[in-house]
Amino acid sequence: MIDLRQPVHVPGGAGASDAAPFWAKLREVCTADGARPGVFYHLVVNRMETRLQRAEGTIGRPQLRNDPCRTLGIAYTNYTVTYAAGAAAGDTVTFPNAIDGRLDLTAHVVAHHHGSRHIGCGGQAHPLVWDFPYEDGSIGVQGYRFSTNQLMNVGEWHELMTPCYEHWISDWQYGKLYEATFRYTMWSGLAPKRTRPQGRSMLGYLGARSHEGFWFMVPGKLTDGDARLDPSNYAQVRLQGRSTGLLPITVSADSEGSTLEVVFTLPDGVNPDSAAVTVQGIRREIDMARVRRE
Fold first, then answer.
1. CA nearest 226: which of 256, 192, 249?
2. Residues contacting 54, CB < 8 A, separation 6+
3. Tell me: the pLDDT tens digits for 15-48?
4. Cis peptide before 56 (omega within 30 of 0)
5. Distances (CA, A) of 128 to 122, 137, 140
6. Which of 82, 123, 185, 292 has a CA positioned 20 to 30 A from the CA of residue 201?
7. Mind listing the pLDDT tens digit for each residue in 214-265?
8. DSSP of the chain
């Protein structure tokens, strides 16, 4: 089922070179809706109003039961693509006001929502980057489109998650999406309403090319259980001028590498006066007055 919401205003989004303000707005909308696990949020942005050079993006990790608003997706309209392989290799095509076009963009982003990552399609420009079983991003086995009674042969069609045209879904990807869909459907059935988990975490979206950040204080302990202190990646929080010590953080980039998601769990009972994170060796102060509290 697909629900369409009213348009939203993204402060600081127009002209932004990083996607951080867009991810922050999606997080706000999802939280305000009280979204349950298995509900995905997908924002459509007119790319011509920004400096973002991309067609799509996702951030976060596959949906988690204790934080349903952590996996988000964006599709950018008005984009231009130069095909890297296939029958249209070398051709440059513009898709005005197109959410999907011939790139099957919406399906591609929904697959990201279910944990799928980008797959290379051969050559130096698009090397294989995931444990995919078929050579050069091929669909591996012949596909079939019911709507047009059409066979998709292995030699012409590339996996949905590759940048190479033309696109179809492989049997391997279909199996991965089936497993994820089954899991998320079970979560939705087991969680008729959202429960507030114990503990609190800080969640931030940081522009990879700037120091601007958008921070949330969220319920739950979101840092990976096996997170360890890293001299290049850690957090510090202070209470009444005294540091509570170094805290491990989890850092992950969006699918295009322009925005970092940073998560760390706060010590029990601590409501910090100030905080900072060191990410990839760069220290960034957190303005606690601007932190959104959920």
1. 249
2. 47, 76, 79, 256, 258
3. 555 788 888 999 999 999 888 766 788 888 766 5
4. no
5. 6, 8, 14
6. 185
7. 999 998 888 766 677 888 899 999 988 788 789 999 888 887 777 889 999 9
8. ---PPPP---TTTTT-SSSHHHHHHHHHHHHHHTPPTT--EEEEEEGGGS----SEEEES-S-BTTBGGG-EEEEEESEEEE--SSTTTT-EEEETT-SSGGGTHHHHHHHHHTT------BTTTB---S--SSGGGB-SS-EEETTTTEEE-TTT-EETTSSSSSEE--HHHHHHHHHHHHHHHHHHHH-SS----SSEEEEEEEETTSS-EEEEEEES--S-TT---BTTBEEEEEETTEEEEEE--EEEE-TTSSEEEEEEEPPTT---SEEEEEETTEEEEE-GGG-EE-
- Residue 273 — left, alpha, or beta (φ > 0 → left; ψ -120 to 50 → alpha)? alpha
Distance CA 104, CA 197 (A): 37
Distance CA 29, CA 19 (A): 16
Q: Is 1 exposed, middle or buried (0-12, 13-18, 19+ CB in 10 A)?
A: exposed
